């Protein structure tokens, strides 16, 4: 579940209710929450899902368990180099820019294979699959169509990559189509927590 902008109290309620996987899109906020919860909850899994600036890779690598938003080799290399030896390998996904707009983050479709080959060479990160954040679509059929290209690429890449098992597609407004398109991990925020309050004191 996506806990960005949610207070530690709200997350603590979710933990009590049995949730174990949390997604954060801001390095500082996520790190503070991880540090807070690690004292009492070693079994939580923290996923970084936001855009990555290369000067933030160390903080991400030292705290998170998963990264969904790798879109270039430089970031992948730094995450691997900076992963502490005492931690298990970082589990990562390649984020694809499915809308084709240059302003959006994510690798282009024709860059994915080369990026995946680069990541396969890195010792401390493990490539597990693909992720995307499509443009909001007005109806179910458009949502399904927006997921089709990544879903096809995911299946094709699985043929040669035994560890490739995660397709992170689907959020509150498009999870129905994402699941039909083969999502193995949905990232749900508002449909669980309600509308985010951006002014709330978080930690
Ligand atoms: C905020 C966010 C989500 C969750 O969105 P909801 O619409 O609240 O479900 C999922 N993925 C990413 C990358 C996000 O930033």
UniProtKB/TrEMBL annotation:
Alanine racemase N-terminal domain ranges (all copies): 8-196
Task performed by this protein: Pyridoxal 5'-phosphate (PLP)-binding protein, which is involved in PLP homeostasis.
Regions crossing the membrane: none
Pfam families hit by this protein: Ala_racemase_N
Keyword terms, alphabetized: Pyridoxal phosphate
SUPFAM superfamilies (alphabetical): PLP-binding barrel
Protein name as catalogued: Pyridoxal phosphate homeostasis protein
Originating species: Candidatus Enterovibrio escicola
Family to which this protein belongs: Belongs to the pyridoxal phosphate-binding protein YggS/PROSC family.
Gene Ontology terms, MF aspect: pyridoxal phosphate binding
Listed cofactors: pyridoxal 5'-phosphate
Taxonomic placement: Bacteria, Pseudomonadati, Pseudomonadota, Gammaproteobacteria, Vibrionales
InterPro entries (alphabetical): Ala_racemase_N (IPR001608), PLP-binding_barrel (IPR029066), PyrdxlP_homeostasis (IPR011078)
Positions of modified residues (N6-(pyridoxal phosphate)lysine): 4
NCBIfam families tied to this protein: YggS family pyridoxal phosphate-dependent enzyme
KW Transmembrane (keyword) present: no
């Amino acid at each position: 579940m996506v806990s960005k902008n949610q207070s530690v109290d709200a997350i603590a309620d979710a933990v009590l209710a049995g949730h174990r996987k949390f997604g954060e899109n801001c390095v500082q906020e996520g790190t503070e929450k991880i540090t807070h919860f690690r004292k009492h909850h070693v079994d939580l899994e923290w996923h970084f899902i936001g855009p990555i600036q290369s000067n933030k890779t160390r903080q991400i690598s030292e705290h998170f368990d998963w990264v969904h938003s790798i879109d270039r080799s430089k970031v992948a290399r730094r995450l691997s180099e900076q992963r502490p030896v005492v931690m298990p390998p970082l589990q990562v996904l390649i984020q694809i820019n499915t809308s084709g707009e240059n302003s959006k983050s994510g690798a282009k479709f024709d860059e994915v294979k080369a990026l995946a080959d680069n990541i396969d060479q890195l010792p401390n990160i493990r490539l597990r699959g693909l992720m995307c954040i499509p443009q909001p679509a007005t109806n179910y059929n458009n949502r399904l169509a927006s997921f089709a290209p990544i879903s096809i690429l995911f299946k094709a890449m699985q043929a040669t990559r035994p560890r490739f098992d995660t397709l992170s597609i689907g959020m509150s407004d498009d999870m129905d189509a994402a699941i039909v398109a083969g999502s193995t991990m949905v990232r749900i925020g508002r449909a669980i927590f309600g509308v985010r309050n951006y002014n709330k004191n978080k930690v």
